[in-house]
């Protein structure tokens, strides 16, 4: 597992928006060969002198719709890792460079063994998509090749998505109930959530076992030294050295926080039978029963 790098390709009319992918966690994964990232300018696939990527919507209405004759070849080339896609510069290190040759792009015809010939995954960020979840991030982190198609304006001609489904497995995804100008920032969010779950990316593999959402509850508060700061004390149970008591207290804190901020999540766990009588006692009291 994790022997071959995960490949991410992003198609956008604003490649500079994806610059943060070079930094911090993702940049490190790229440098360590765990991750390959290709950022592609959609305008490379235009054929007219104005490099137009959008046109007015059939049926009328405000805004512009992104053109199928540009997106179609872009998605075909990126799936095949050919054409203008093969000439795109990869983000292969955390520093800006020109030295990396386009051959750092995996040749689609090269021998990758007979493992996994499945279609690449195409993610289309859109406020009209299904809500992005930790479960999606986990699923995507096990893929070999994930492509993000960033739309702007009022979206992409729907036939692009329908046609892409012949080459890709396609998911239209939203990062929340608000409207962004385009998909670029949503891709940064989704790529980070996904890449941190790739084995070897996080220093501590155990650390995402306890993440918020990994067990369906929000994570409770954390504390470090000093024990007293600005007259505020660290909860004494954390200094008790009693691992069982600490774990019980942490679960109670997670339950109370989830009840206050995300009652929907708590009710989902109740329905799944994952909230015990002891859990309900803490929720009823608003604290750990032994406090
Ligand atoms: Cl994925 N894209 C855009 N443009 N707006 C959004 C979104 C995505 N998710 C929430 N709002």
From TrEMBL:
One of its GO terms (biological process) is methylation. It is found in: Cytoplasm. Its EC number is 2.1.1.228. InterPro entries: Alpha/beta_knot_MTases (IPR029028), tRNA_m1G_MeTrfase_C_sf (IPR023148), tRNA_m1G_MeTrfase_TrmD (IPR002649), tRNA_m1G_MTases_N (IPR029026), tRNA_MeTrfase_TRMD/TRM10 (IPR016009). One of its GO terms (molecular function) is tRNA (guanine(37)-N1)-methyltransferase activity. Residues 92-112 are annotated as: Disordered. Residues 7-81, 114-267 form the tRNA methyltransferase TRMD/TRM10-type domain. The keyword tRNA processing applies. S-adenosyl-L-methionine binds at residues 151, 175-180. Homodimer. This is tRNA (guanine-N(1)-)-methyltransferase. It comes from Corynebacterium suicordis DSM 45110.
